[in-house]
Amino acid sequence: MIDPSTHDSLQGIAIVGMAGRFPGATDLDTFWDQLKNGVSSIVELSDDEINIPAADKANILNNPHFVRRAASVADADKFDAAFFGIYPKEAHVMDPQQRLFLECCWDAFENSGYEPTTYPGSVGVFAGCYMNTYLLNSLEDHPAFIGALADSFHGGELKNELGNDKDYMATRVAFKLNLRGPSMTIQTACSSSLVAVTQACMNLTNYQCDMALAGGATIRFPQNRGYLYEPDGMVSPVGKCCTFDAGAAGTIFGDGIAVVLLKRLEDAIAHGDSIYAVIKGWGINNDGASKVGYTAPSVDGQTEAIALAQAIAGVDPRTITYVEAHGTGTPLGDPIEIDALSRAFRMGTDERQFCAIGSLKTNIGHLDVAAGVAGMIKTSLALTNKQIPPSLNFETPNPNIDFENSPFYVNTALADWQPAPGAPRRAGLSSFGVGGTNAHVVLEEAPAVVEDASRQPYHLIALSARSTAALDAMTANLARHLTHHPELDLADTAFTLQNGRQVFNYSRTLVAASTEEAIALLETPDPQRVFTVHQIRRQSPVAFLFPGQGSQHVGMGQDLYRHAPVYREAFDRCADLLRPHLGLDLRAFIYPSPDQADAAQARINDTMIAQTGIFSVSYAMARYWLSFGVQPEILIGHSVGEFVAACLAGVFSLEDALALVAARGRLMQNLPAGSMLAVRLPVQEVRALLPEDLEIAAVNSPSLCVVSGPTGSVSAFEKALEKRDISVRPLHTSHAFHSAMMEPAVPAFREAVRGVALHAPAIPIVSTVTGEPLTAKQATDSEYWATHLRQTVDFAGGVRHLVADPNRVLLEVGPGQTLGTLAKQHPDRKEKQAILSSSPHVQQEISALAHALGVAGRLWQAGVGVNWAGCYPEESRRRAHLPTYPFERKRFWYDQVGGSAEEVDVTKVRETPPGAPPESPPALAHRIADPDFDRHAGDGYPIPAPDDTVQRIIAQQIEVMARQLQAWQSQ
């Protein structure tokens, strides 16, 4: 939880999620490690790595102005199209900038701890990208691609345009992630992504959306090609960005994707978000004509933007102790930027060299459109870690910059970030675009967090992915992350995974008491504790099964009583209501103190205590599951368990149900003693052998019955069956329940039932008297409930109804695992039907809470809708920054558009033979014969309801392709 007293104001925009793909780094942890260690990701290219057409390569390599250095993003040709439901035909022709930006937007959401497609609020998207060099690079090599783009109606495909025009970048993200806020592409050259941030902030401030994605993408193709510099031009002759240095002679361009997820600060605090940094103010303007030329920077324009951001933030410039500069390393740009910054700062302070300054471009090059948000990510990580990473390639100050008399000094080594006295750590961030659009923001460290340790001793880790391979990668990534971040609260980790991830068909769950235990189980999964499931159904129906007498034991549900408030409140209510009926406190026998343990054990099998105890535990456990949102669609109860089912369904009130169960137990306990025997035979065979004074008390499964009667007769019957090698087991009971020996209790119990109000069940119940659904007439008939205690329990018949729906999940709700075991043995049960027991076996040394949490995970894996709030009742958990989805990327490239899946070197220039047909005949024939063609013609998306216009367009496309094929074959 956030401590508001550490902040001068709660106003601002919180950065709650971030993601990026940078040269040398595909995740934030790697990116930060490289920054703080002063690593340059601008690499020297060997002759083999240089990506230039063979015909030109020799001349270019021998050119004295050729610089063989690059800062490229790895695997830019790869994309997880299936994850986003994008057809391969569409993915091949989509600009990789847009593909990777889409992945990074998903990453930013997951990094924040939210699931994008189901987020209830309005989310905006503000983004820009560099020019489409993917399209330009394919002009010569793939003319059919360009022809289709030029004419998207007559023989072309609209998906070519949709995947390559900047206009569709932001809206595609909104479509694929189901985001309903403002969605717009922002283009202001180098300042595009930071301008996108300012637009996102304004929309959040004006309540046009509740969260906003902002960022940019720059990837140039072909990659790893080096470049030619021109004297006095913008690019560096040595392939390094020497920002603010006397040797600065130009910048070097790099590739990258950068995205942040923003939220109003007060909302982020209220929702328990982990905050990287806070945007306190922003300024944006344009230079106009007050400069030397269109591409030149302007001191006045930059000064005004910086001063505006500081004014909106309402901060003293003296409290800004770091500036992430635009810092291109050009002889003209660097001095103008320091001059502008100095003028803006001098409006509030005359102090000198108190503010560190640096530039990310010295590490990864100039990311152009993505540069601003890339700098924001760097600065946010620096604020989070309270360290300022070094700016590289600085030795001697540019002689045109007077650092000594300015507020700034270049930070050249990793340094602890010291805030100004009495203020939080603050930073400025600039991004200036060619053409004069300037943007500056003021960032502040996140409010201090007051640790809110969980009171829960166990934590449920739930993972979900689209494939086994992705699930395994996700598991390994989480284990590695927890190892590297031992400071993470395991409760927050579990909460984030439960609430901030989309549910897919492959899942894995485990319960752990500590981070160390979680890591061990993730690294070496124990199949008895780590459950991996492939499940495609959702919203599976649930049946609650309530056990009867015989499942009781001292301490049943002990840890649930200690740690689950819903359970404890329900059990306490039962115990309080039972006091006048029992003349004792049930808690003393179910959850005794150490000095009461022996007395509790001696009386736990007393019928009156056993039946009321089973009812109370089962009822409290049902309330526990309801707190998880697990709503049963049907109920069944074994003997006294049917009273729990009836109470939950509204046949009795809780007060009346407890009074009846107490009376039932007392009446039965006062009868003469008897015995019961379990017999491993079908009921028909048992009846044929049964003596006259014994009865079938229960049919628990088609091959397991229980007989009941006088102790002597039961003993004799037991010996007779053993002589026939028939499996039998005496039950530890004091009476012959569900037999004629119970008959004397019926009249008195009938009168007790007549004294309470009976209602038709609101939830269907399967009667274990008839083995059929309980009718409203039976439920409201006192005779049914009076004779219930002496009728045969037909549990097997009831289970037959439950397993008739193979998608139904059966959940035993109460102590023990007897009913779940019996249900699993039923011959009508489908092999993969999920049957679970809420409690561990009495002989298992496992916490009832740990077991129940594991069952919650397995219910979720079985497709049951689970409300994870049940895991942390009465607690406010925080969303943690955790590893994001491990995309399963495959290569999609324009050289595959014709149908070829040939794997070639990453983003290499293709050497296409002259005169090649625009599309090969096998590819054309494949597309015409494609049975799914009608589903992904046109714009590449499934057509929900084709009308005549759509069908006519499809027919025209097929006709044009057929003519192309015929013309090629005739050559």
Notes on the protein architecture:
With 971 residues, the protein is of the alpha/beta class. The chain folds into 4 domains: 4-445, 3-Layer(aba) Sandwich (Peroxisomal Thiolase, Chain A, domain 1), CATH 3.40.47; 453-534 and 848-877, Alpha-Beta Plaits (2-Layer Sandwich); 542-672 and 735-844, Malonyl-Coenzyme A Acyl Carrier Protein, domain 2, CATH 3.40.366; 675-732, Malonyl-CoA ACP transacylase, ACP-binding (Alpha-Beta Plaits, 2-Layer Sandwich), CATH 3.30.70. Helix content is 36%, strand content 15%. Helix 31 links the parallel strand 29 (809-812) and strand 30. Helix 15 (468-484) runs antiparallel to helix 17 (515-523) and helix 19 (565-582) crosses helix 24. Residues 4-10 and 899-947 have low confidence and may be disordered.
Write a short abstract of this structure.
With 971 residues, the chain is of the alpha/beta class. The protein has four domains: 4-445, Thiolase/Chalcone synthase (Peroxisomal Thiolase, Chain A, domain 1, 3-Layer(aba) Sandwich), CATH 3.40.47; 453-534 and 848-877, Alpha-Beta Plaits (2-Layer Sandwich); 542-672 and 735-844, Malonyl-Coenzyme A Acyl Carrier Protein, domain 2 (3-Layer(aba) Sandwich), CATH 3.40.366; 675-732, Malonyl-CoA ACP transacylase, ACP-binding (Alpha-Beta Plaits).
